[in-house]
Amino acid sequence: MCVTGSYDHTVKLWDVRVTGSKTVMEVNHGKPVESVVFLPSGGLVTTAGGNSVKIWDFIGGGKMVYSMESHTKTVTSVCVGRVGKENVEEGREHRVLSVGLDGYMRVFDYGRMKVTHSMRFPAPLMSIGFSPDCGVRVIGSSNGVMYVGKRKTKGENVESSLRSFWSLGVEEERRVMRPSYFRYFHRGQGDKPKEGDYLVMRPKKVKLAEHDKLLKKFRHKEALVSVLGIKNPENVVAVMEELVARRKLLKCVENLDNMELGLLLMFLQKYSTVPRFSGLLMGLTKKVLEMRVEDIRSSEALKGQIRNLKRSVEEEIRIQHSLQELQGIISPLLRIAGRG
Question: Which UniProt keywords apply (predicted)?
């Protein structure tokens, strides 16, 4: 008799004495089956699939005896071996050993229905096996390394016991991983990219400034006040232009208190005459004076800022007049030079 497991979730028991190519018994594991092993009694079968290892009683009609789900990723292989120490009561009993893509090996006592041992490896594990005398355990990983463990025998010293576990690199004998191979899709997150692999890079998260976060929440006045406090004219003008597009700039100006209005007037006094900002800021200055004239008259601090703003505008006008005079002097000279 033999037992098989398949990716269609089924586990089937076959008897070569039955004609017609019919199965003797069939059970459903619930996930694609990766490994199937007879237990030493002959009536129990253990199956691995998904993140669970299940034990079935085929003599009892295919009843599931227990389901062990201590792995966090797909269980890739199971085997049966005798483990433990010889000088203890429960030593040298058969255990079910399972390995998975989470990098763990679990030792399961199916007599007591509990996990008795666990070991972590640095790579996803693909297979596990025991020597006939259960003295050597071999585990294969997805990165092409075999982890071999040897049982410590009586008379061995500490140094020999430390040498009883080692790993063998088999990189030279590895086949090139291709998308047509099953193991290509089970390499795990710890596998490093090779030459020719297509890398999908995770986009870097953009850190938003405080005023951008407030704009996303439609808290317009708070966004304007926040950007006025950082004293960056490009950001302030950008926020003002966004508020103009949303038709909320004048509403924000109307709701500013005296302290916040002082910040706005200070900014207008400093940058309203800058040529690249004057197109927006001069018009805004006129609107601010019209809308908040009463508040400005009732506050000496705001009056002082208005006087400073007036001086800045007058100075800019004086500079423009001087430039026009220079232009009037230079233009005839350039025309005469052009004729020559």
Answer: Nucleus, Repeat, rRNA processing, WD repeat
How far is C-alpha 37 from the chain's CA centre? 37
pLDDT, average across residues 82-92: 60
Question: Which of 131, 72, 132, 134 lies closest to 104, judged by CA?
Answer: 72
In this prediction, residue 337 carries a pLDDT of 83
Distance from chain centroid for Cα 214: 26
Q: Which two tokens stand for residue 260?
A: 């916040």
Q: How many helices (H) and strands (E) does the chain have?
A: 9, 15
CA atoms of 40 and 94, how far apart (whole Å): 8
The pLDDT tens digits for 182-215 are: 666 666 666 777 777 788 888 888 888 888 889 9
Orientation of helix 258-271 relative to helix 220-229, angle to 10°? 60
**Sheet harboring 165-169: ordered strands across?**
125-130, 136-141, 145-150, 165-169
Token reading at 35: 């490994």
The encoded tokens of residue 216 equal 């996303």
One-letter amino acid at 166 equals W
- Domains of the chain: residue spans and CATH: 2-150 (2.130.10.10), 210-335 (1.25.40)
Q: Please check the confidence at residue 159 and state whether its pLDDT lies above 90.
A: no
Alpha-helical runs (H) found in the chain: 158-162, 210-216, 220-229, 233-245, 249-255, 258-271, 275-291, 293-297, 300-339
Residue type, 74: T
Q: Directed axis angle between helix 258-271 and helix 233-245, to 10°?
A: 110
Structure token digits, residue 287: 């609107």
Q: Please list, in sequence order, all residues whose beta carbon lies within 8 angstroms of the beta carbon of residue 1, skipping any fewer than 6 positions away.
A: 13, 14, 15, 16, 24
Which positions ≥6 away from 148 have C-beta within 8 Å?
136, 137, 138, 139, 165, 166, 167, 168
CA angle 136, 138, 140 (to 5 degrees): 175
